[in-house]
Structure formats: C-alpha cells, structure tokens
Amino acid sequence: MTHIEIVEMDGQLVEGIGSYCLRSKKKSEGYKGKNKWLNQQFEKDLRYVQLLEDHKQVGFIEYTDAEYSSRVVHADGYVMIHCLWVSAVGKGYGTQLLKKCMDDAKQRDKKGVAVLTNDHTSWTPSKALFLQHQFQLVATAPYDFELLVYPFSEDVELPYFPHNWHDRLTGYHNLTILRSFQCPYVQVATENILAAASKLGLSVDLVEIQSRDELMEKSPTPYGIFSVIYKGQLISFHRLTVQSVYKKLQTLLEGPV
Predict the structure, then answer these.
(1) Which tens digit of pLDDT belongs to each residue from 86-126?
(2) What gap in Å lies between CA 235 and CA 172, rounded to an integer?
(3) How would residue 254 be classed by pLDDT, with cut points 50, 70 and 90?
(4) How far does Cα 238 stand from its chain's mean position?
(5) What is the pLDDT of residue 29?
(6) What is the β-pairing status of strands 79-86 and 145-151?
(7) Please, which residues have CB within 8 angstroms of residue 204's CB and are 6 or more apart in sequence?
(8) Max Cα distance, the chain (Å)
(9) What's this model's pTM, rounded to 2 decimal places?
(10) Residues 18, 184 contacting (CB under 8 angstroms)
C-alpha cells in the first residue's frame, strides 16, 4: 500500500531530505543558493512543505505571509503561494498540498490565500488547480500575469497589483539582470544571459535584490525574482536558451537606440 506523507520542512530537514527543485544537482550554485535563501526565509515564517510517496519526493508547495513574499503584489494579511509542483497528476497531490496551505492560513486568521499564475510559462503554478478550488481572478498585469485569490470572507480587501510597470523599465539602458534566489533555476537563467551577452560584446549589470521593499519598488513584473532589461525593454522574466537571448538582444542592437 502506498504511503503518503506531508512534511513541513525546516533548516535541518532541508539539509537532510533536500529541497525539491534541482535536487539532482545538489552541488550547483542554484541549488545551494535556494537552500541558503530558504534558511533565511524560515526565520520569517516561510512554509516549505513536501509530499512524499513511499519516502520519495513527489511534490511540494512553498508559501509565506504576503508581507514577505517574492511576488510583487499588495496583499497584506494574506498568504501568498510562491510555488506548487507535483510529479504526477490525477492522484490528488496538488489538492492535498493546497489544502495544507489553506488550512494553515485559516488557523492563523489570514484574510485568504493568493497565487500568481501565467499560462505562458512553467515558472508559475498552473491556474487550473486553483480554479477547481474556487479561487477567483481579481487582477491582471502585463506579460500575461494573473492574480488568483481565495478570500475567507466577503468583506476583506482583495489583493492587487501595482500599476506602474512601464515606468519601472525606463531607467535601464544597459543590459541588466534583477534577481533573487527564491527559484534555484535563476542561476542557470543568469548564465544563459551572460553567455549571450558575451557573444555580442555586451556588459551586464547584475542586481541582487536584497529586500521585499526593493523588490516592490524595482521589479518590472509581478514575478519579482528574475527580470532581464535592455534599452528600457523587458527581455525575459524566466529562463531562455542562450540562442533565444542572443536573437532578442541582436534585434535590439540593430534597432534604433
């Protein structure tokens, strides 16, 4: 009989069981950066919950109080889900993880639960599961981002996005990467940008986001933890291949300054 276990991680368990993403490359900079970030965020009550099937990692959910979230959303009093991932669909694993999050939020008297989705990238959770559980779409933002929310009562204020996305891009003329290690794949994404830039003889300004306030002020997308900007235009908010980056940058180099 299959044994299912939900394990709420802490620093000691992350050191032992390991975090979920990039676990096959535990010596990589991305994996080590993620674990360091997790240990810092555990002190701010971040929850990192893994689902084990017969002691094997098959899914996880990461969420935190919105006031400490890595998503550019105004949602004070809510829980914000960063990630939800399962290795197999149709087994109810996603529902179990989501229920864990919602139960925890209710027990802590939160206003509700919110999540950022985007159908055009796998870097955010799929919205299908949340719609199945009566989350409602409350806001949209450029680049196909959507904000889904499950409020616990009808009289609470709903979360919302900032509205100055375009203004956030205008100050960057040089090729610039804004990042934090909430996602371990940020390192690989960064390396691909650097490789493409090197082929074109471009220097890169790398900005490490150090705080929630800095994230809320500077990020040009709701995703928050990875943005590539050149000549006032967003190149990407997720990992691209070196060739894809090269083509995008080359197009901008050949166009008007």
Answers:
(1) 988 888 999 999 999 999 999 999 999 999 999 998 889 99
(2) 12
(3) confident
(4) 10
(5) 86
(6) unpaired
(7) 174, 175, 176, 177, 193, 194, 197
(8) 64
(9) 0.93
(10) no
Q: What's 114's DSSP letter?
A: E
Q: List the structure tokens of 52.
A: 């084990």
Residue with tokens 């997790």: 38
The pair of structure tokens assigned to 5 is 């276990």
Residue 147 sits at φ, ψ, to 5 deg, of: -110, 115
Orientation angle between helical segments 186-199 and 29-42, nearest 10 degrees: 140
Q: What angle do CA 173, 175, 181 make, to 5 degrees?
A: 125
How far is it, in rounded angstroms, from Cα 185 to Cα 25?
11
Q: How far is CA 42 from CA 39, 57, 170, 208, 221, in A?
A: 5, 20, 35, 20, 25
Residues 198, 36: Cα–Cα separation, whole Å: 29
Q: In sequence order, which residues have a C-beta less than 8 Å from that of residue 255 and are 6 or more positions away?
A: none
pLDDT digits (tens, 9 = 90+) for 21-61: 867 688 888 888 888 888 889 999 999 999 998 888 899 99
What are the strands of the beta sheet with 233-236, ordered from one edge? 205-208, 176-179, 226-230, 233-236
Helix pair 186-199, 242-254: axis angle to 10 deg? 50
